[in-house]
Amino acid sequence: MISIDMGSLPLPLNQYPYPNARRDNSVVDHFHGITIPDPYRWLEDPDAQEVKDFVHSQLQLTDSVLESCAARPNLRHKLTNLFDHPHYTVPFRRSHNTYFYFHNSGLQPHSVLYMQNGFHAGAQPHLLLDPNALSPDGSVSLTAVSVSQHADFLAYGLSSSGTDWVTINIMRIQDKHLLPHTLSWVKFSSISWTHDTKGFFYSRYPAPKEGQLVDAGTETNTNLYHELYYHFLGTDQSQDILCWRDPQNPEYRFRASVSDDGRYIIMYIEQGCDPVNKLYYCDMSELTNGLQGFGNKQEEEDAHAHATMLPFVKLVDTFDAQFHYIANDDTLFTFLTNKNAPKYKLVRVDLKEPINSWFDVIHESERDVLESACAVNGNQVIVSYLSDVKYVVQVRDLETGCLQHHLPIDIGTVNGISTRRQDSVFFFGFSSFLSPGIVYQCDLGTQAPVIKVFREIVVPGFDRSQFHANQVFVASKDGTKIPMFIVARKDISLDGSHPCLLYGYGGFNVSVTPCFSVSRIVLARHLGCVLCIANIRGGGEYGEEWHKAGSLAKKQNCFDDFISAAEYLVSVGYTQPAKLCIEGGSNGGLLVAACINQRPDLFGCALAHVGVMDMLRFHKFTIGLFRVLLLYICITISFISGRGYYSGHAWTSEFGCSEKEEEFHWLIKYSPLHNVRRPWEEFGGGSIQYPSTMLLTADHDDRVVPLHSLKLLATMQYVLSTSMKQSPQTNPVIARIECKAGHGAGRSMQKIIEEAVDRYGFMAKVLEAHWIE
């Protein structure tokens, strides 16, 4: 048992009774002739009692530190007040005039799904599904919804305690009757209904063998042998039709969508994290007696033992580029792709002549990234571009690609474009650093588009005129210009006195764009904090070339970019190292940890969320979605986990793999776990130490399993403190470990607030940021 005497706590911030975690020096790995010790390997087993004792003792220590953070009560009060406002998602349409959307009255743990028959005067919303009634503590969340073509049925995915494992339930919408059969072991799936409303396609893993898995969400084993199924309403999951699997490639993942005309199944095949996929299709009109007849044929083939798969045609059978279905007219298909176009383009191909009929509809832009395309109003397409990390929205001709209209929007982020090809009216969402959110309605049925505010989110007490947001471009170590947004109170003096929060991600082709954050506005208003987002390489802000410039052998560019952004903030007088906090989640957690290893002198505080910290062993653990912490359900495409990037063995396309000698040498240079050093020795003595650090993780995180943070925590506490009688390291190194939670998706409002209170209360304490009323 690991124990800690808490009788004298809370303590001053320079005295910490860190738990004396056992070091097993017999555990070593051999990589290409190099011996690497791994003394905390035992922390990889989440079910071991010793690990549970370690976590418990760390929680006690963290609680004692947080008790001394004076800003927490004020933060809790202000955050609760500001979060208590109604907010809505963009509505999406099914059937003739039936709309669906999510609404939260303010402090509800989870948003509630409503339906409404039109938005004319007198139309009333009807509550369809309230996830808050599913668990008393808010630990069960709604992670996917998909409504059938005629709004007869709702298929929805539920996740418990934040895990990526999902159970699909089915509701008859008319009377809210739940069908008796549920679908289990679903992960990384879409839910796509056939137009006859007989059922839907989904993806899952084989059920574990009896006794193999106890608590879905805490396991660390990898997920293999993904399969695509079709479920008929009213039948047991055991009777589902196996549509596709590939035993020769166990790491492949499959998801399917039904084309707008209901005729084709489009199957996407993915392997790693890169924006590439294979694309197959199946013409369901050519199936004798349809899917039911195909299923009957399978039953005759010994319950899938040698089952015939659906007759998919391999349109794209290489992992050279990404292809995403936009629309089709009979056999003429339009795709969004980065094939020979790192900033993306729109292409068209005739399935009757797939070899020589590919041609560009919208050519790749020289400067801007084509983020999305949605068919609407028959033969038009709404496209959104990212231009220097700011959104541009256009209406173009779907057949020719010709520009027809620019839609006027402010500087910010466009999200949730909700269209149907047969509709002339569509909706889209907008937010920015200083705009909590607007849902716009746009009518293309007139000569010029008519745009109006459909709903606007108002945060009581928030006055945007008090703040200013601007964008600067910072020279990185190699001279590359890195965009960075800076949000602060107006007319602040550049005297280096301000606390500053710098956020970054830099990976997996993810773009971090302007969005509203209640938490950060509270920091700016009441702690005088300067808020910054650095759009470093590795992200998707400038297309695939920008992404590749921060991955694999070039990963160090991400850290150089982030460090250069921090140096800029100090050099121009926004802040000073002692008042500079860096924050990031997932890949951004790796970013933060690597940067404090490389430049511990540059930061006063570090907040690393759910980071991948052991770069030599990450590929051995569970596969999950790896993404930015700001997570939203993507209603229009019904992905179970929204936009994300896979983890575990799938990360090797982003980072490399230690089993390959060249890639091992990339990874060992920056792996956070293997580069913790005593800065007072590395930098020739003096008072340099690691910044005050909080590692954040969760017990049910099956994307970046908690062992990453736990092993780094034990290593930092040992190297910097417990291995020495009198250590110069007086800044705390602690962990916040959330119970019954995952990687960030599906958290209740209360958990979101409490985590913000803890991490920013800690930040305020160590940066000596004082509360301002």
Structure overview:
By secondary structure, the protein is α+β, with helices and mostly antiparallel strands. The chain has 12 helices and 42 strands. Strands 33-34-36-35-37-38-41-42 form an 8-stranded mixed β-sheet, with helices on both faces. Strands 3, 4, 5, 6 and 7 form a 5-stranded antiparallel β-sheet that branches. Strands 8, 9, 10, 11 and 12 form a 5-stranded antiparallel β-sheet that branches.
- Choose one word for the global shape: globular
Structural class: alpha+beta
Number of strands: 42
Give the N-terminus to C-terminus distance in angstroms. 45 Å
Major sheet = 8 strands, mixed
Q: Regions with pLDDT < 50 over 5+ consecutive residues? A: 1-14, 624-647, 741-745
DSSP summary: helix tally:
12
Widest sheet, order of strands: 33-34-36-35-37-38-41-42
**Residue fraction in strands:** 25-35%
Which radius of gyration do the C-alpha atoms yield?
26 Å
Q: Residue-averaged pLDDT, rounded?
A: 91
Q: Give the helix proportion (percent range).
A: 10-25%
Could you outline the blueprint of secondary structure elements for this entry?
Layout: E1 28-31, E2 34-37, H1 49-67, H2 72-83, E3 87-88, E4 92-94, E5 98-104, E6 112-117, E7 126-129, E8 140-147, E9 153-160, E10 166-172, E11 177-178, E12 183-186, E13 192-193, E14 199-204, E15 227-232, E16 241-244, E17 253-258, E18 264-270, E19 278-283, H3 290-299, E20 313-316, E21 323-329, E22 332-337, E23 345-350, E24 359-362, E25 369-376, E26 380-387, E27 390-397, E28 403-407, E29 413-418, E30 425-432, E31 435-443, E32 450-456, E33 467-475, E34 481-489, E35 500-504, H4 518-526, E36 530-534, H5 544-548, H6 556-571, E37 580-585, H7 587-598, E38 605-609, E39 625-626, E40 645-646, H8 652-655, H9 661-670, H10 679-682, E41 692-698, H11 707-722, E42 733-738, H12 749-767
Parallel strand pairs: 35-36, 35-37, 37-38, 38-41, 41-42
Antiparallel strand pairs: 1-2, 3-5, 4-5, 5-6, 6-7, 8-9, 9-10, 10-11, 10-12, 13-14, 14-15, 15-16, 17-18, 18-19, 19-20, 21-22, 22-23, 23-24, 25-26, 26-27, 27-28, 29-30, 30-31, 31-32, 33-34, 34-36, 39-40
